[in-house]
Amino acid sequence: MSSKYKSLKEECYEANMQLNALNLVVYTFGNVSAVDRANGVFAIKPSGVPYEILKPEDIVILDYDNNIVEGTMRPSSDTKTHSFLYKNWDDIGGIAHTHATYSVSWAQAQRDIPIFGTTHADHLTADIPCAPPMSDDLIEGNYEHNTGIQILNCFKDKNISHQEVEMVLIGNHGPFTWGKDAAKAVYNSKVLEVVAEMAYLTLQINPSAPRLKDSLIKKHYERKHGKNAYYGQ
């Protein structure tokens, strides 16, 4: 593959293949993108291409206005959501979207995922937010672009930072995650799915299970994040 975007395409391809390897997608229902801020473009999986035949050269390169810069296939149907987030959050490097079972179940229930345990607190200190279902006028408009608006409005309304909470559920739809690069976005997708499953099982065992107390949230988050972190090498 000869392309000035070769490394970007390969990053995007590997992240998409990891999404599949982690059992976060069903058939072709999912996508990952990776951004190149220096060149003002991002790479994304082509729409509807099965993972078993996907190749790095199939990855589509677009600018932030959704114009195809390089590629012969149609990009993911969620492309406009990705571009909207890249334009509005200039510090993120990758975005992932899945239809993973437990994450989607919480989205369909239109519920935030409560912080019940330390696995959740290892990654973030807040409930995982669920944006309300999209209004009819937005659905009838530029739907995928408006999904990006839906995400930003959710974070504004709940007074949440996208830098601290790198994941969201879209009511009746499913999850989006992001991070410093495409690999981190996929990592966050897996974390979200695991936490969603644990929270579901917790409520089956004890429907009145309490949220994790603040002292444990603080301890578990800070031992992995921040200047005094001591987890890992």
Structural summary, described in words:
- The chain is of the alpha+beta class and 233 residues long.
- The chain has one domain (6-222): 3-Layer(aba) Sandwich (L-fuculose-1-phosphate Aldolase), CATH 3.40.225.10.
- It is built from 8 helices and 8 strands, in the order αββββαβααβααββαα.
- It has an 8-stranded mixed sheet, with helices on both faces.
- The longest helix has 24 residues, at 182-205.
- The radius of gyration is 18 Å and the shape is globular.
Give a summary of the structure in a few sentences:
This protein has 233 residues and is α+β, with helices and mostly antiparallel strands. The protein has helices at 6-21, 79-88, 101-108, 118-121, 136-139, 143-157, 182-205, 214-222; strands at 30-36, 41-44, 60-63, 68-70, 94-98, 130-131, 167-170, 174-179. It has one domain (6-222): Class II aldolase/adducin N-terminal domain (L-fuculose-1-phosphate Aldolase, 3-Layer(aba) Sandwich), CATH 3.40.225.10.
Q: Determine the CATH topology.
A: L-fuculose-1-phosphate Aldolase
Structural class, from helix and strand content? alpha+beta
- Taken in chain order, the helices and strands follow as HEEEEHEHHEHHEEHH
What's the overall average pLDDT, rounded? 96
CATH class: Alpha Beta
Major sheet strand order: 4-3-2-1-5-8-7-6
Number of domains: 1
Helix content: 25-40%
